[in-house]
Every structure is written in structure tokens, then in C-alpha cells.
Amino acid sequence: MLTLERSFFERDPLTVSRELIGCELVAGDCAGIIVETEAYLAEGDEACHTFFRPSTREFMAGHAPGAAYIYLNYGMYWLLNALIKGGPGGDGFTLIRAVEPLHGIELMQERRHRSALHELCSGPGKLTQAFGIGGADHGSNLCEGPITFRKRLEPPEIVACARIGISRAAHFPWRFLLKGSPFVSVGPGKEKAAKKRAEDSRKKPQKQKNF
User: How far apart, in whole angstroms, are the C-alpha atoms of residue 65 and residue 85?
Assistant: First the structure.
């Protein structure tokens, strides 16, 4: 499969987030099919970092479409986003939320201290740990490496549902899933239960752990 070019990321975040489903995420010896993404808009989206982080607005202004925007969430795990910029529908980001592992599985299992395939990359923090993606990759060119996306072979069936893991603007149906995939973080219709689990978890003392 061919690596996605910069023009792929020069459209609106919702279109890019949809069309990344079924593409392949590659980092080093590890690769997998993207089965879940989430779109964030730079304007009018209270859940996007541009709404409350000047540093994110500076990043967007200073980087080309297809740059890796990587940040540490809750001080515990890295999240991988692609910068979407230059399209007629506005700028923003695509968060890579879940991946079906294909290659480098033993290395992923070692990094994650897990053996079950569906537990390796079924969440944005899990997949970065499995792929060895971290802060050093922030700002890198996703069209050249060391992290890249490869084009999907055929258009998959996609389900759109509410975003999760956020407290603002969570009702927007801007989370995209590969229909029927067992590798997604949270299945369609299960967002409320996932939100309650996350809230209960945050009430407990936080400890460093493998995600």
C-alpha cells in the first residue's frame, strides 16, 4: 500500500477522520489497520485543544498538514493526532483511537505486557504504547516517517457515533468506527457506560500503569 500524501490531510477533519478508517498505521516494525478515529475542529469545538491551549494554536500555525500532534494525556499516556489543515471545511485534528494489530505483534505484546490481540491497541493510549510512539515524535511528518499511514485497499463500512473521553461537546457524532470490529475502544451505543467508568476511575488515586 502507498503512504498517504500531504494532500490527504488538506481537507476537513471529519472527512479525513472517516477516510483514515481502514488505512494502515505504521511505526518501526509495527503496523495495524486503523479501526477508530475521532475528529476535532479548530473553530467552534470546545473539546479541541485550540479552544483553550495557545500552544496548540501556535502548533497549527507553524506546521504543515499531516504533522503529528502528540500530547501526554492526564500525565500518563501519549495520544497520536494528525493535523488537518487547508481544506474548505476548516482546520483541526484527527485522533487515532484504536488499531487492529497486523505486524510486530510480539513487540506490541512486550511493550503492553498483554497477550490478547484485542487488548493491545483498543484505545489511544494503548496503541501509542504498543507502537512505541511518544513525545519525541511530536511534530514529525506523517507523510515521511517515522510514523506513517498507508492507503486502504477498499472503502470499509463505517459507523459514526458520539465522541468519548471528553467532557465538552461530547454529543457530536464525530467518532468513526470500522463496523463490527472487535478492536475498537468502545462500541457504538456504549458511550454512556464508558463515560461512567472513566469518571469513577478519575475519582480514585491515580497510579502509573500500562494502558
Answer: 5
